[in-house]
Write a structure and sequence with these properties.
By secondary structure, this protein is mainly beta. The chain has one helix and ten strands, in the order αββββββββββ.
Length: about 200
């Protein structure tokens, strides 16, 4: 068989094969079986109430967030001083911990909204049931000074201008020993990975 006959036979075979398979439906698209399709990192800080940073693994609008949170009553914007109501010794109320939360993020055309709820473990020292005593340039707070080593219910919200990175406002809450710790301030979320 010459080269010309072989080429002609190949052309006829491919032509017949094309017509035989032309009526078949297209192959199904690959299904995304990844556990998540985007990763968000977030840094947020309160005005005198602490700071937090977190990583969120997200699939669609739902995700799992791991956050480090620090709640601070003294902060950089207040001039309050804290004292134990019994001993009158000064202390710095500061509680920090790690939380794992379920989160929901809605990304719109100009920004995003996020809400999260979860559980965390916190430790530190805090002033409960504080009573104020105002002085000319400072406010003294006399509190029930307690050590904190507890599991806490945590939740938070944020609203951001910017779809995949931006600047916005956030509020984080932790319920520790029947007191709600609050941190509100500026947030900076960034989407670092998207499948």
């Amino acid at each position: 068989m010459s080269h010309q006959h072989a080429i002609a036979a190949l052309l006829i075979f491919t032509s017949l094969s094309y017509h035989a398979y032309a009526d078949l439906p297209p192959a199904p698209k690959a299904v995304n079986t990844a556990l998540f399709d985007s990763i968000w990192v977030n840094a947020r800080g309160g005005m005198g109430s602490g700071y937090a940073h977190s990583v969120t693994l997200q699939r669609g609008s739902w995700g799992v967030e791991h956050a480090y949170l620090l709640f601070d009553k003294t902060g950089w914007i207040t001039s309050d001083q804290f004292f134990d109501e019994d001993t009158e010794e000064s202390f710095e109320p500061e509680v920090h911990g790690s939380a794992l939360s379920a989160s929901y993020r809605y990304v719109g055309s100009v920004g995003s909204l996020k809400a999260s709820v979860g559980i965390g473990y916190f430790n530190g020292t805090w002033g409960f049931d504080c009573k104020q005593s105002k002085q000319p340039f400072v406010t003294n707070q006399y509190c029930d000074h307690r050590d904190v080593n507890d599991v806490a219910f945590v939740y938070g919200v944020e609203i951001v201008l910017g779809r995949y990175w931006g600047l916005g406002f956030s509020a984080d809450y932790a319920i520790v020993q029947s007191e709600t710790l609050v941190m509100g301030g500026v947030t900076l979320p960034i989407r670092v990975l998207s499948n």
